[in-house]
Design a protein that fits this description.
The termini are far apart. By secondary structure, the protein is α+β, with helices and mostly antiparallel strands. The longest helix is centred in the C-terminal third of the chain and has 17 residues.
C-alpha cells in the first residue's frame, strides 16, 4: 500500500480495567494478545478485513486493509488512549461508506474481551474525499437510538476540524435536523479547542452512539463539498 493512500484512524479514550483473571488465562493458554492482534482477529471474524496474502485469499467486499493499532492499558485508573486503529479504507465499494462503526465495534470488542471499559471520548481522522452518501443509513439509525432509555440521555461536546471550516450555527442546526430530535447540538464556547465546537446531548453514551454522531457529521461535511481529511471528536460530559 502506497504511503500516500488515504488513512482512516479511530481512537477510543477512557479507563480500561482488566479482568483480574486475564493474566492467568493468558499464561494457561500461552497467549500474548495485544490490541492489534485482537483487532485483526475480530475484523476477520466479521469479514471486514484480513491479513492473509495472495490472490486465493482475496476477501470479497473487504472494508479496509490494516495499517497499525495499539493502546495504553496501564492499570492506574486514569483516562487514556486505550485503543486506536489506523487503516486504509477500501474505495469504490458499491453501497458502502467509511467504516467508522465497524472499526469502533472491532476495538470495543477487543477491549471488552480483556476488561471493562469506561468510555469517555471518540476521535476520528477521516478521509472525507472517500465518503459516500450515508444519508439513508443515518436516518435509519435514528430508529435504533430512539429505543434508548430516556434516562440514558447524556450531555456531549463535539469538535470538528475541517477545511473549509463550517460555522458552528450551520453545522449544529444541520446535525440536529438529521438527528430528528434525538441528537441536539448548539454552538459551543468560542474559546474552546481548535475547530468548530458544539455542545448538546445524545440519546445515550456508548461507542456505538459516538460512531453514529461522527457519521452524521461526516455526511454533512461530504454533502457540503469538503474533500480534505477532517478530525472529529465526540466526548461525553
Amino acid at each position: 500500500m502506497a504511503e500516500e493512500s488515504p488513512v482512516l484512524k479511530i481512537e477510543l479514550y477512557g479507563v480500561l480495567t482488566q479482568h483480574p483473571w486475564i493474566g492467568q488465562v493468558s499464561i494457561d493458554h500461552d497467549l500474548d494478545e495485544d490490541l492489534f492482534s485482537l483487532a485483526v482477529k475480530r475484523a476477520g471474524a466479521y469479514g471486514w478485513s484480513t491479513t492473509l496474502l495472495g490472490p486465493q485469499n482475496m476477501l470479497e467486499g473487504q472494508r479496509w486493509e490494516h495499517a497499525d493499532a495499539g493502546g495504553d492499558w496501564s492499570q492506574d485508573g486514569q483516562e487514556r488512549l486505550v485503543a486506536w486503529l489506523t487503516v486504509y479504507p477500501a474505495a469504490g465499494l458499491r453501497g458502502q461508506h467509511l467504516p467508522v462503526l465497524p472499526m469502533v465495534q472491532t476495538l470495543t470488542d477487543a477491549l471488552h474481551r480483556v476488561g471493562e471499559l469506561h468510555f469517555t471520548e471518540l476521535r476520528v481522522h477521516a478521509p472525507v474525499a472517500l465518503a459516500r452518501d450515508a444519508g439513508f443509513d443515518l436516518r435509519a439509525a435514528t430508529d435504533w437510538f430512539a429505543l434508548a432509555s430516556p434516562d440514558a440521555r447524556t450531555d456531549i461536546t463535539v469538535t470538528v476540524c475541517a477545511e473549509p471550516e463550517a460555522s458552528a450555527e450551520q453545522l449544529s442546526a444541520s446535525v440536529t435536523r438529521s438527528g430528528h430530535g434525538l441528537l441536539r447540538l448548539c454552538p459551543g464556547p468560542l474559546d474552546g479547542p481548535g475547530g468548530t465546537v458544539m455542545e448538546g446531548s445524545a440519546p445515550e453514551w456508548t461507542p456505538d452512539a459516538a460512531a453514529w454522531i461522527t457519521g452524521t457529521l461526516l455526511e454533512f461535511l461530504r454533502a457540503g463539498g469538503v474533500r480534505a481529511p477532517a478530525r472529529i471528536t465526540v466526548r461525553g460530559v
